[in-house]
Design a protein that fits this description.
It comes from Mucilaginibacter polytrichastri. One of its GO terms (cellular component) is membrane. This is Pili assembly chaperone N-terminal domain-containing protein. There is one protein chain. The chain is about 0% helix and about 55% strand. By secondary structure, the protein is an all-beta fold. It has 2 domains: about 120 residues, Immunoglobulin-like (Sandwich); about 100 residues, Intracellular proteinase inhibitor BsuPI (Immunoglobulin-like, Sandwich), CATH 2.60.40.
Length: about 290
């Protein structure tokens, strides 16, 4: 695979702002009641770095701009990504690279009145025996424990109530000091054949990417498709990925079934600052 030194305006992709914002409108059809919930939680990812035996703290801020009070309970889980990047959850302390048992969250239950803010303190107790080079991770869940629903039916109006419970997951990472290497790279680039997506047939291609670095790394993959006979080209919008060290992930891209003839496909992998742009190429001849 090729790599190209780059400035990070090359792909002109805005990095995400790592916070949650949810707005929910709850309507009770009784001619009278409309309730709104709006909650923001920041950050959505927490990165800890510190020496062995050190105590580290960060805050999570919950802001309620809705019209009713909201209550949340904190809990911790382990997680890992499968081969296509989907998260799989497990009980805390199950995974070899879990840091859930290092964590303390206070308070464990928090109520945010309408128009108010509250903070949770997340404390990480880095064990004396923590690895000097392994990134560990877990997920902090904030689960709503008070139900917000529509009013009861009365004698003159039918009522349809909507009950909503919210849950947010905050990624928590620990990176040992001096662990800084970023290196996402392509492993393979292949044609996966004709597939059915929803109700239509598509031509599916895939790339497999590995995080060969030492740290959790965000990246973007984009594709350029060129008809070698006509020179006509189009681009596939960039897809975001987030990978832990040594993880491998397959990213699928669906192309129109109508493509015919020889094509050049170029995949571009942007692993963020202080990395080189990686390039993979694949020539395909669609004859049917």
């Amino acid at each position: 695979m090729q790599q190209i030194k780059k400035h990070h305006k090359h792909l002109n992709i805005a990095r995400a702002c790592w916070c949650f914002f949810v707005f929910l409108l709850l309507i009770t059809i009784d001619g009278q009641h409309t309730q709104a919930q709006a909650i923001s939680i920041s950050p959505s990812r927490m990165f800890f770095t510190g020496a062995k035996s050190q105590e580290l703290t960060q805050q999570v801020t919950l802001t309620n701009t809705g019209t009713t009070a909201l209550s949340f309970k904190a809990s911790l889980m382990d997680w890992a990504r499968d081969s296509i990047g989907e998260k799989q959850y497990a009980q805390p302390g199950t995974n070899a690279l879990s840091n859930a048992q290092w964590l303390e969250v206070a308070p464990n239950v928090v109520e945010i009145p309408s128009g108010a803010k509250q903070q949770l303190t997340v404390t990480m107790h880095v064990p004396a025996g923590a690895s000097a080079d392994a990134v560990t991770h877990s997920m902090l869940f904030l689960t709503q424990i008070n139900e917000q629903g529509g009013s009861k039916a009365n004698a003159t109006h039918a009522s349809i109530g909507v009950i909503v419970k919210l849950e947010f997951g905050i990624h928590i990472y620990y990176t040992p000091p001096l662990t800084i290497k970023k290196d996402l790279d392509f492993l393979t680039f292949y044609y996966d054949g004709i597939k059915t997506s929803g109700t239509v047939q598509v031509r599916r291609v895939a790339v497999k990417v590995k995080n060969q670095g030492d740290v959790m790394t965000d990246g973007f993959i984009s594709f350029e498709v060129t008809n070698k006979s006509t020179g006509e080209e189009f681009k596939i919008p960039a897809k975001a990925i987030s990978m832990l060290p040594n993880d491998e992930q397959v990213i699928y891209v669906d192309l129109p079934i109508t493509l015919k003839g020889p094509y050049l496909l170029v995949a571009l992998l942007d692993g963020g600052e202080e990395t080189n742009l990686k390039v993979a190429k694949k020539e395909l001849d669609f004859i049917y």
